[in-house]
Every structure is written in structure tokens, then in C-alpha cells.
Amino acid sequence: MAVQRTLSIIKPDATRRNLTGAINQRFEEKGLRIVAQKRMWLTDEQAKQFYAVHAERPFYGELVDFMTSGPVVVQVLQGEDAVAKNREIMGATNPANADDGTIRKDFAESIEANSVHGSDSEDNAKIEVAFFFSETEIVG
Ligand code: CMP
User: Fold this and answer.
1) How far is Cα of residue 87 from the mean position of the Cα atoms in its chain?
2) Does the predicted TM-score (pTM) go above 0.90?
3) Catalytic residue among 11, 48, 104, 117
């Protein structure tokens, strides 16, 4: 296993309920280090671009509306096998299918308002990290 970086987004349903600290605690407890972090309100353009891979999916419009409905916290998580580890910590996309003890099981409201996003592969992690952060903003 190698040390990796992955992009995480704490979504508007979670920032609205003031869960940023509770979610960050999950990452840190499980050995991931938050090596960059910023709170921002995504523009329509940013959300559309970030989720462009889903542009043809029926939920794309609602996903963009949801992701621009309030502040998000974008962050880079670093650690051994960080991409897969973060996906374990988050749980399944649909909270109804998420394992006990995962962020989505404990905090998500629905498949759309599912509290967190995490990169799904090391290649996508590199693209997604670069979407929000320059190298000088990441302090490992
Ligand atoms: P995320 O990991 O951010 O990547 C794409 C998002 O689309 C996903 O989490 C869900 O929040 C959202 N989404 C909304 N509806 C669906 C759906 N029917 N299937 C999959 N993802 C959905």
C-alpha cells in the first residue's frame, strides 16, 4: 500500500447541520490526515464542471442544484490507501445500503443529500484534487 491523496467534499446537507467537525473526526480517527481544506459556495459553473461525468444522468440537474444550495467544505485527505479507505469511511452512495458506522449511514438524508463525496479512483482523485487546489495549498 502506498500513501495516496483523495478529494473529499462535505456537502450542503452536512454543513447546514453543522456536521463538519463530526465528519472530520471520522477521517482523523481512521488515520486520514486533512492536508488541505476550504469552505466555499460552489457556483453553478463549478458544480456542473465537477460533475460533468454525470451530465447525461437523469439526476444531473438536481445534483447541481443541491450542490449549489449551500456551502461545502472541499478537502484533501492523505494516508495509506486513502482513496479506498475514504470510500469505506463514507459508506455506500445510497445511505439505505450503507454499513453501520459509516458517515452516510449515520448522517446522510438521502441518495442525493448524502453528506460527503469522495474520489472513486486514484486517477480521478488527482483530477478532482487539482480541480480545487494548487500544489502549494496542500501541506502534507
Ligand atoms: P457523489 O459521490 O457526490 O457522486 C455523484 C452524486 O450523485 C452521488 O454522490 C449522489 O449524491 C448523487 N445522486 C443523486 N441521485 C443519484 C442516483 N439516483 N444514483 C447515483 N447518484 C445519485
Assistant:
1) 9
2) yes
3) 117
Nearest ligand 1 atom to the CA of 120 is 2
Number of other residues whose CB lies within 10 A of the CB of residue 68: 17
C-alpha cell at 2: 502506498
Residue 1's pLDDT band (cuts 50, 70, 90): confident
Task: Name the residue among 129, 102, 107, 103 with its Cα closest to residue 38.
Answer: 129
- Distance separating the N- and C-terminal Cα atoms of the chain: 18
- Name the grid cell of 74: 472541499
Q: Can you tell me which residue has the cell 478532482?
A: 128
Closest residue by Cα to residue 114 from 129, 99, 130, 95: 95
Cα 4 from chain centroid (whole Å)? 15
